[in-house]
Structure formats: structure tokens, C-alpha cells
Amino acid sequence: MRKLLTVSAVAIVGATVLQLPLTGSAFSADMPQYVPPTYDIPDLPPVDYGLGGSFYLRGSVSGDLWHASDGAYCACVATFQSPGYGYSVGVGFGYETGDGPRTDVTLDYMSINKLTTTGATHTVDLRAGLFQVNGYYDFNLGGYSPAEGGFGAYVGAGVGFAKIYSDIEDAVPTQIAWGLSVEAAASVMAGVTYDMGNVVADLGYRGIYVNKVLNQPPATPPTYIINNNFIHEVRGTLRYRFD
């Protein structure tokens, strides 16, 4: 009798199990669904590839040396043993592309004294206004684009004209001749810069060439001419960029 009851119980349990839905969907319905995590990714700032084009104002001050090859005063030929010395100040307005090329126009006032003839018999003083149109190429020494900040360098050249007042004095000194003329002028430039963003500091050299300085027609006789004039400048400049 006990064996019969055991077999009956096993048969009932087996029949019940066979009637259960054993499909995967039945088990999966009871399992929690996996939801992948989500993250809020902020918008990344655009990559800075360097400053674009911008206009700028500039101001300069320099120390000057004036050399000349020779000259003529009345019928006498003069040579020069000592350079003149002085200074210049200037302003300008320009535009830079941000990837190398730059251009500006400049106006400078120059005051140079004591260009001395051989034997120290005469000295020449000069006052001039110099207008030039200039072109440059900027290099960034950090290996990035020219307008990305830090140290840089440049080369340049300019052409224009100078309105020159000059006078000759003897050893006393007494003014013996003076004159005013307008002459063509050209220049070359090179220097180093430090870019601070809106402000760029510049220390450089400018060499200016003027073919002649003279009083023709003479303001007061006698006439004179000074040939092959080279003015060497060590010049400090600040440039202010407009955003």
C-alpha cells in the first residue's frame, strides 16, 4: 500500500511539471530588463586654431644713428667722420591676417643731430617727418600659428617719403645754411615680439635709406647736398589689436 501511494505521488508531480510552460519567454518575463546607463556629455569648446584677422594701432619710439657717404657744400666736397644721433617717435594703423602677413601705414617724427664732417669743421642737424606703407611676415617661435601668443619674430620692408628740414653749422657754432626738401625713402625691418593677446610688444631694427638731403632750391645760400643717407634705428613698439 505504501509503495502504491509513493508511485501515485510521483506520477502527479510529473504530470504537473509536464504541464508547466517551459519556454524562454516565460522565464524572461519574470527577469528584470537591463537598461544601459546614460551620460550627459557636455558640448566641447571649439578648437582654437589661432587668432583671425584683426586691425591694430601701434606706437613706437627709437634711438637713431645717421650715416652718410659724402656731400657737397658750395664747391667743396665733404666726407663725414662721425654719425649723427637722435631719436624718433611714431604712430601707425594696420591689419594682420593672423597666419603670417601683416601690413600697416606709419608716420614718424625724427630728430637727429651732429652728423660731423671730416676735420669737425661742420655739423648737420636733421628734423624729418617720415610716412611709409609697410609689409611684414610674422613667425611664431613656439611652432604654432603667428597669432597664437608667446614669442615671435618678423621681417618687413617699407616705402614712402620724408619731408626733411636740415641745417649746417660751423665749429662756433653758427648756422650757415639750411633747407627743406621732400625725398623718397625705403626701409627694411626685423625684430622679435611677445604676444599677450590684445597687446603685442615688439623690439626690432629698422634701416632707412634716403638718397639725398639737400636745400634745393636753397632757403638760404649757399646750397648743399648730402648723399646716401642711412638711418639705423633700434625701435620699441606696442601694438593694440581690436577684437
What can you see in these coordinates?
The chain is mainly β and 243 residues long. The chain has one domain: Porin, CATH 2.40.160. The chain contains 2 helices and 10 strands, in the order H-H-E-E-E-E-E-E-E-E-E-E. An 8-stranded antiparallel β-barrel has the order 1-4-5-6-7-8-9-10. The longest helix is centred in the first third of the chain and has 17 residues. The chain is rod-shaped and about 120 Å long. The N and C termini lie far apart (105 Å). The model has no long low-confidence stretch (mean pLDDT 84).
Give a short overview:
The protein has helices at 2-18, 24-30, and strands at residues 54-73, 76-78, 80-82, 84-96, 101-117, 122-140, 150-170, 175-195, 199-214, 224-241.
List the topology elements.
Layout: H1 2-18, H2 24-30, E1 54-73, E2 76-78, E3 80-82, E4 84-96, E5 101-117, E6 122-140, E7 150-170, E8 175-195, E9 199-214, E10 224-241
Antiparallel strand pairs: 1-2, 1-4, 1-10, 3-5, 4-5, 5-6, 6-7, 7-8, 8-9, 9-10
